[in-house]
Amino acid sequence: MVLATYIDAINTALAEEMRRDERVYVIGEDVGVMGGVFKATQGLYDEFGPERVIDSPLAEGIIISSSIGAALAGMRPVPEIQFADFITPAMDALTQEAAKLRYRSAASQTCPITVRVCYGGGVGGGLCHSQTNTTWFAHEPGLIVVAPSTPYDAKGLLKASIRDDNPVVFFEHKKLYPLKEEVPKEDYLVPLLKAAIRRQGKHVTAISYGYTLQLTLQAAERMKQEHQFEVEVLDLRTLSPLDKETILESVAKTNRVVIIHEDHRTLGIGAEVSAVIAEEGFDCLDAPIMRVTAPDVPAVPFSAPLHMPSVEKIVAALKRTAEY
């Protein structure tokens, strides 16, 4: 085991997969000589050269479209979208081409690309560098959408995504990049499509992913220390397809649910999780499902308290639900 930050885990996963499989390459803005704006690709250019670590133009549509073509030719591209806010020029390629290739070809074609996307607010990035738009892609059948919350999962899920034959949109919250955790030195994978129970509890289930999962764990500890409630914390990890089985098992255990995420409230991941629970686990519920989310505003407010879910907001929702 080695103590690694989230960004170190991403970097190591990329290096290991590029050494393991010569078909794997990275492409994106500043990923080469600069090593990435967050240093996720630092050192890769020196080891693998400009043919496998490609500095692209500032053109997200070209980055993704070229990666799809390369995937169809047998490569395994790992394109980077530097900020989630700028992914819209690539939407046609991702949703109309990558997501549909297997289906429209009767499974004769696959599109093994792993699109790394930096997302999330709360670091002073302002209007155009802070969005959480995971739901855009979770809504599209054919795409696997992943959002790890720990360094261990970041490495294991990225390696699993690169080896998967389906297109994966891999979301990395920028506030998680400094987070440290023990990570194995040896090769390992974290399975896609499987949620994880991060903390056992019996009074209420808290469901989250990404950076807000870390806030939820802090809130769960406060609930125990200050209010004597045991909160079970469920990390979705893969946002689409959802691991319904693990969600419903936890709800059956605690009978109460709070869902926390940084995306907008309306039609966010929490809305779909709520619908799944209402349709398939309604008899288990002893209280209304609650959500702690970002507000439905056109852009991210500069003031984090106006936008970001916080430990205080999560504790308040958990306490209200537990006492219902």
Gyration radius, rounded: 19 Å
Beta-strand share of residues: 15-25%
Low-confidence runs: none
Shape: globular
- Determine the number of helices (DSSP H or I, runs of at least 4 residues): 12
What count of structural domains?
A: 2
Q: Would you give the CATH topology of the largest domain?
A: Rossmann fold
How many β-strands, per DSSP?
14
Distance separating the two termini: 43 Å
Strand order of the largest sheet: 3-2-4-5-7-6-12
What is the CATH architecture annotation of the largest domain?
Answer: 3-Layer(aba) Sandwich
How would you classify the quaternary structure?
A: single chain
- Structural class category: alpha/beta
Largest sheet: 7 strands, mixed
Element-level helix/strand string: EHEHEHEHHEHEHEEEEHEEHEHEHH
Mean pLDDT: 95
What proportion of the residues is helical, as a percent range? 25-40%
CATH homologous group name of the largest domain: Thiamin diphosphate (ThDP)-binding fold, Pyr/PP domains
